[in-house]
Batch of 2 targets.
Target 1
Amino acid sequence: MNQEPDPQLERWTHGNLRRLPELSAPPSLLPRVLAALQAEARLPWWRQSWWRWPLAAKVAALAVFLASATALSFLGASIQPAADSLSTALDERLGIISHLWIALAALGGALETLLLSLAGNPWVLAAGAGCTALYLLSIAAGTVLVRYASREAGGLRHEK
Amino acid sequence: MSDTHHFEAFMQAYQNMVFSSAIRLLGNESDAQDIAQEVFLRAYAHFDNLSHSATAGGWLKTVTRNLCLNHLSRYRARWRFFSEMSAPDDESDFAESLPGPDANEHAGDLTDHHKQLEAALQKLPAAQRVPLVLYHFDELGYDQIAAQLGVSLSKVKTDIHRGRAALRRKLTTASAPTPPARALRS
């Protein structure tokens, strides 16, 4: 399954890449990380990561979470009959949607008939092809512009 | 030694490794710095365990790889449409478009051969560079890479092969030490 298509090229690449030394991290990395750590340390404890909360706060938060989850599950069980009756009432009220669906299906049928009758008309076909061509042209132009802009941005970064 | 000084020493020991892994996967210095910063912030949160762990390097490398892949997948969907439309053309002139030996500012202390290889690697399209780096630096198998990247095994093999061929083209056209004669033949 993992058969190598070109073992010589694989060995050559592996040898060269593995001989590459590590790159030096920019000198700004260490001060950046230390500054971020200091900024985080200045935050009040409740705005820091949960893992860094005091133990008592962690335990209290866990207890509140468990109590909420338990309460919600009991609440869910107790309101089950009420939810069932609400669902029945909604079903009755939403019956109007089925009427709407029938009207939309009829409209769709009429549109289909209209399109089938127009399909034989060469002018309609030509207009459709023209619109499609313009749409594709606009996508192509957008692609070219985006790639050009991103290359320019890359070039500027290298120049910096 | 205070905790901060201890962490500074830890960072100095590992920052080149983390930054190198990130920039080789991402091909972008600014993104690599952001990822390296995030890796060390996470390391600080687990510093009690990491500071005396023999596997700290492996932990850092894994976190770096995961964060880089997350970062790439976040942007991949956005750019996939545009990048795939002209991918074949990009490849044909890839070797010619590579920068000269001085283009990589982080390669100042490397030999010309290493500079060119590093620059060529970072200029590879992400679809080739990422699996190539995962294979040769992180030593993952083809199937592991396919699973990590969520692409087919055949695509991984093709992309890695194209990436290797592009690197070899670049290095053999430059005045770098030549690879074995048989390997030069395509």
Note: The CA atoms of residues 125 and 153 of chain A lie 42 Å apart.
Target 2
Amino acid sequence: MGDKLQTRRDFFKLMSMGALAGITLSGLGCTQADMEEFLQRHFHEMTEEEKKQVIQRLEEKYLKKYGKKFEISTQPADTDVLWGYGLDIARCIGCRRCVYGCVAENNQSRKSPQLQWIRVVRQEKGSMINLEDAEHYYNPATVPEPGFQYTPVQCQHCENPPCVRVCPVKATWKEPDGIVVVDYNWCIGCRYCMAACPYKGRVFNWSEPHIPPEELNTKVHYLGNRPRMKNVVEKCTFCVQRVRQGRYPACVEACPTGTRKFGNLLDPNSEIRYLIENKRTLRLKEDLNTEPKFYYFFSA
Amino acid sequence: MEAWDFFKKTLRMVVVGSKWYYLWCAFLLTIIGVGIAFYATQLDTGLIVTNMRDQVSWGLYIGNFTYLVGVAAAAVLLVIPAYIYHFNPIKEIVVLGELLAASAIIMCLMFVVADLGRPDRFWHIIPFVGILSFPKSLLAWDVVVLNGYLILNTVVPIYILVKTYFGKEPNKKFVLPLVLLSIPWAVGIHTVTAFLYNGLAARPFWNASILAPRFLASAFCSGPAMAMLLFQILRKTAGMKIKNAALFKIAELMAYAMFLNLFLLGAELFKEYYSATVHLAPMEYLFQGLNGHHPLVPWIWTAMGLNVTAFFIFLIPKTRENLVTLNMGSLFIILGVWIEKGLGLIVPGFIPDPLGEIYDYLPNSHEVAVSLGIWALGLLIFTLFMRVAIPIQRGDFSHSKYEHGVTGHSQYERIKP
């Protein structure tokens, strides 16, 4: 099956190469790299050799575009790992340091529009589940404000993710370690996943991302924080580039109050397991049966 | 050889015409040109040129798509009585109805492509070449059923027309199964399109099982309404003979469809307003405004007014069988359903967004220009279809062997070209 698929694809590649090289190359002045990018296959269907070529091409592209040397990893998930997140509602003061820590780490577009993977919403005390009265653009001189509580929301990395189910081209999927990722080069930009997500876990590059080159993070993962292109979707990856190397996600490190916890759900000695077993936890919109791996809890 | 001859003649048919024909085509081509220019900037700059944002991530394009799937599906309303009940006055226009469906589907596909962020990666969705996530993704289902419907609705009329051109009766054994298949298929395309929204638990406004029936009911209003107007225009301009009896029959069926549409909407409104859970919010946003945001309120009430008025026009025999009121009613339905099913269905699904934010979306001039371009292109395609189909059916355009013979198609008036 694999071989057959390979031959068929090679055939298509060859045919399109011939036809397109003639029309597009000369007509639009496309480079060889553009053509290779156009014909690039789904991440899962690439051989190790092809992945290497793609990484090399990307690194050259980024060097030309941003004048920076990037290190692009394709490190796969470890076995016996299922990442889980804990967020202490009682501790969050709504300072949004996690939001901006995330933006810097993950190379989101800074302006027009600014993309954020984490949203912190402000709610009056006494309400938590009904987000329809939540304030997104609170902007006081100091936080926390009396009478309010804050709920940060980001991709919940559902075990049963509706966004993955709806994608018409399988450009987004759940990795073996539970992280939901996007192949930015395979996404067709239909935005069905955004309509399907109950947590607003996905944002769209409505234009070419705007990032000042000096602010770029050059240590990136292919399925994570590498710079994106216009008209594709993106989302939180639990900082796949960090957590697979034994580091915490950037939001965990950025939080000044210790609100954010992270660990391996399969490890009985992990902090996240301790929290689930010893605290009262809740997950957002559990009635939708999405099975988030993002646990809100109350330390006090 | 004969095929080549037919092709050459067809081409001449399409290229040569009266002053009005040229003017009409030039008018459409101008709008298409403007649309293409705006689409080119969208491709270049990105979807940022539209008013869509993360909160409301689908807009006018997908609204038009949804509406036109309904128009295409409604071809069955013309096909069912013709083939099942042998209601002859309608039978004459089945071929034209199917060509209308084909034109509508082509527009649907163009609207999807216009909405796509990366049309350059279109090949990713082609089965075997790329990866089509069938059967998991409803969008994949839609790709399959819409393209199937397009093939069905071009093969059948072209086959009938070519046979007629050569002075032969179409082979019933070949046509009838295809026509019968197109009936459930039409229901299928609109059901699948409804399920596309329906299946999203994240969007309570769409996550109502009444959505697919509502889609069908409103489609059986807007599709025939459009056909009704187009056929009368063709009767005037192309000498196509359609009996008034056929139009009145269709109008009667539309009255039932509109009743069903209003009833289902009422059922939905009752459920939301009486239970008054937090999921009422999108409905409130649409009909009353929510927290001071009410851009869609005038639109939806206009639509309600148009639909209810049209319902009474089509219900009362006296107004139904008067061409002036009949055409008014058709126009009301076309507009009313377009609002209800376009902006009125897509936008409130996103408001408030899953985290409670309200973003007021109305399309900007850019989206309007691209959409008008697609509508004009669809109309042009339909015009060209008609340019060839009507003379063939009338017996004016046929193989040279029969050119001077007696036409066997008595239902069409023979007009000297």
Note: The CA atoms of residues 11 and 137 of chain A lie 52 Å apart.
